[in-house]
Amino acid sequence: MNIVSLFSGAGGLDLGMVQSGNNIVWANDIDSDAVKTYRKNIGNNIIEKDIQNISLSDIPECDVVIGGFPCQGFSMANLQRDVADKRNVLYRFFCAVVDSKKPKYFIAENVKGILSIGKGEVIKIILKDFEDLGYHVTLHSVNMADYGVPQMRQRVIIIGERNDISELYPFIFPAPTHGKDGRPARWISIKEAIERFPNPDLPNSVPNHEYSAYKVVYRNFTAHRQTDPNKPSPTILARGNGKGGVCAIPHYNGIRRLSVRESAAIQTFPDDFIFYGCKTSCYRQIGNAVPPKFGYLLGTELQRISCLMEISKAV
Ligand SMILES: C[S@@+](CC[C@H](N)C(=O)[O-])C[C@H]1O[C@@H](n2cnc3c(N)ncnc32)[C@H](O)[C@@H]1O
């Protein structure tokens, strides 16, 4: 499938799409570090620009539009949630691209907090907006740990299927591959995901293996809780306490915070995927990402549909 990717960031979702055999024809992000990371690891097909300044005619035709519109305005962690938050309007650009390109499918990712803004009224508006564009829309609330990601990461995925194809070629949302009760397989723990990395304080050649000096003090709130080595990691965050830094999760050794590389591994980025920018920027790009492993499952479903379409063309 040919994909247009909006709000692509460092390319977590896009990497999964490419690894599963899809083709990203055009991508966009405003953040220069994320764009550099994307270019060096995925491809040159990304434009660094504010989406608000991009003309729809500059975006190519495609089969699928994907993207995670910025979640700051939507996050439950943001106490000043506001229906009128300016960043929330960015999703309208996602709608405009879908309206203009009329892709067969679209996939939009967001934080779980999107479900509760305005007592659930905002998500209703969003879904109706998409339906009015001619799409059958479904909402999926997922925990990435259920898909083999070593992390408790609750996200909402909105799938749009163009009305004229939704019955013939429905998008079958991936079933969980892992579960708390060990079925189909047991959740992967943080220790299993990162124990292979050397001590970052000793000389090593692991890229991005530096960590935040922010002291580990347990205060029983997000990013300040003890990490259990035998459970999936807490959510890898994209922001901190509002003072500019990103809050990295404490390592389960209790001595330091996770390195950039360890955070990336928990987000299922391959070890040779290099992040560019300062430490804070790298942490942010990683915390913002859709785990590539989950992106791969979504991309595999697109491939399944694409094969069916090819077969029916041939007969
Ligand atoms: C949640 S992240 C998306 C991460 C991406 N889906 C991934 O898997 O790596 C949202 C992205 O939107 C970008 N963004 C925010 N405002 C933007 C704008 N006005 N134009 C283009 N990109 C923007 C941010 O720089 C950020 O990388």
Structural commentary:
- It is a single chain.
- α3 (91-101) links the parallel β4 (64-67) and β5.
- α1 (12-19) crosses α8.
- This protein has a 7-stranded mixed sheet, with helices on both faces.
- The model is unreliable at 75-80 (pLDDT under 50).
- The protein is an alpha/beta fold and 315 residues long.
- Helices cover 27% and strands 14% of the residues.
- It has a domain at 2-180 and 291-314: Vaccinia Virus protein VP39 (Rossmann fold), CATH 3.40.50.150.
- The longest helix has 23 residues, at 292-314.
- The protein has helices spanning 12-19, 32-41, 91-101, 121-132, 190-194, 260-266, 279-288, 292-314; strands at 2-6, 23-29, 46-48, 64-67, 105-111, 135-143, 154-162.
- It is globular.
- The protein contains 8 helices and 7 strands.
- The structure holds S-adenosylmethionine.
- S-adenosylmethionine binds at residues 7-13, 28-31, 34, 50-52, 68, 70-71, 90, 288-290.
- S-adenosylmethionine binds next to α1 and β2.
Sum this structure up briefly.
The chain contains 8 helices and 7 strands, in the order E-H-E-H-E-E-H-E-H-E-E-H-H-H-H. With 315 residues, it is an alpha/beta fold.
Task: Reconstruct the topology from this structure.
Blueprint: E1 2-6, H1 12-19, E2 23-29, H2 32-41, E3 46-48, E4 64-67, H3 91-101, E5 105-111, H4 121-132, E6 135-143, E7 154-162, H5 190-194, H6 260-266, H7 279-288, H8 292-314
Parallel strand pairs: 1-2, 1-4, 2-3, 4-5
Antiparallel strand pairs: 5-7, 6-7
S-adenosylmethionine binds at residues 7-13, 28-31, 34, 50-52, 68, 70-71, 90, 288-290.
